[in-house]
């Protein structure tokens, strides 16, 4: 019995569901399109000191260089080879990043584009980030190498080789997603080639992978690739640790393929999370925050220990992928901070924070015609992430993860880790509050009138700094103070016109 318990504990700790973040770190950040040199610095100067667990990076392998439009962000989802060579940096810079981040306890998760190569209509030649030759027309990628045998052209049953119907699971997996050449993951050669690429990254020291377009791969084919992966590098991880896996499967319901088919391989992105939370915060469809009382599985989401959750991602913040107009982003900063705050305070799922760059968003007929615009750059060369005197980022980088409210809620999540959801309160409308055991408490006012209530916090008596309006610095609060009495209650007052209409306190923000 004891042995079984021990084995299952070990199984959990070392399995593909575990992000292998350093003890006490519970959230990761997607540094979308950042250069490796900037990520290395960010790990040391900001992420480690502020308790971030890890970074999801943009795809590190060589991609097609697209010139029409000019260097879109999405060219990185069109692989040409598995050389570590992109606008974010070369292999030396990649190794330096992984080493330096791991050395300060911040993990690196690679966005692995393994379902396909580049678009079938791209011209033959050397328009690629490392100068490799390729010819999409005859499926020739000599730098891998892949040839016509390694693609699903013969297997796909639609008349034009494209996915036409998401209600047909076979075509979603065997046909081309937006013209992208679909790799034959049923073949051992392709599986081994992909596993070699991933093992190269594992040996350098990455902790895991986001598997791009997982819905478009058969779960069994993914498993066959994962079975070939090495254990994590023992320089930083305990012996026998398996890479963390989270699969990008968009399942909002109503299609042939469901997330649960992928649970055996690892975690899965829960796209219902951001779509629903955005709807609630915007008060669309009669939704209100009071309904969040049973947030999580109670809303029809996947089991918490399988879910990778986020408010927005690099696709749906600009109208790609799924989720639609309800998705909250930095463009709606006030509601966005509340939504991210709610996510980080709530126990459901493993959390990922988005970190974006700005682009000239411009809607025509409801569609952002600049949804393709790549990262801040000079003639295609990605700009450095500069840091302003007030700790925000310059050069067009938004750095949501550096916003005080978000940074402090990452710390909140670390403090309340594994504490139960507790002391829920709501006013039947959009004023809600909840705690995490006796470690933290958060109150939201998303109504059009002010909140003033005495609530049970579950916290020990004392004076606490609200970590939304300010920080605890040198034994004092730079923002609002909250006084918890001996019975655990405290009085909260939040104006509906406050800059940030929510308050969060935790045991480490106590004076
Ligand atoms: C680019 C060009 C294309 C060109 C292609 C090849 O834009 O015009 O044909 O190159 O030359 C990214 C960009 C693409 C880009 C691609 C390659 O987003 O625009 O194509 O790089 O450069 C599907 C997939 C999902 C995918 C998502 C974007 O299932 O895996 O589309 N996300 C990942 C990445 C993404 C990347 C790729 C995959 C490709 O995160 O950045 O693409 O590597 C339904 C389905 C979803 C499907 C969406 C969109 O969703 O369920 O599975 O996502 O449609 O096609 C409601 C529904 C919801 C529905 C949604 C949209 O919300 O409830 O289910 O509407 O209809």
TrEMBL record:
CDD domains: AmyAc_bac_euk_AmyA. It holds the Pfam family Alpha-amylase_C. Keywords: Calcium, Carbohydrate metabolism, Chloride, Disulfide bond, Glycosidase, Hydrolase, Metal-binding, Pyrrolidone carboxylic acid, Signal. One of its GO terms (molecular function) is metal ion binding. It comes from the Eukaryota. Residues 1-15 form the signal peptide. Residues 26-413 form the Glycosyl hydrolase family 13 catalytic domain. Residues 422-510 form the Alpha-amylase C-terminal domain. InterPro entries: A-amylase/branching_C (IPR006048), A-amylase_C (IPR031319), Alpha_amylase (IPR006046), GH (IPR017853), GH13_cat_dom (IPR006047), Glyco_hydro_b (IPR013780). It catalyses: Endohydrolysis of (1->4)-alpha-D-glucosidic linkages in polysaccharides containing three or more (1->4)-alpha-linked D-glucose units. Its EC number is 3.2.1.1. Its cofactor is Ca(2+); chloride. GO terms for biological process: carbohydrate metabolic process. Belongs to the glycosyl hydrolase 13 family. PANTHER family: ALPHA-AMYLASE. This is Alpha-amylase. It comes from Nannospalax galili (Northern Israeli blind subterranean mole rat).
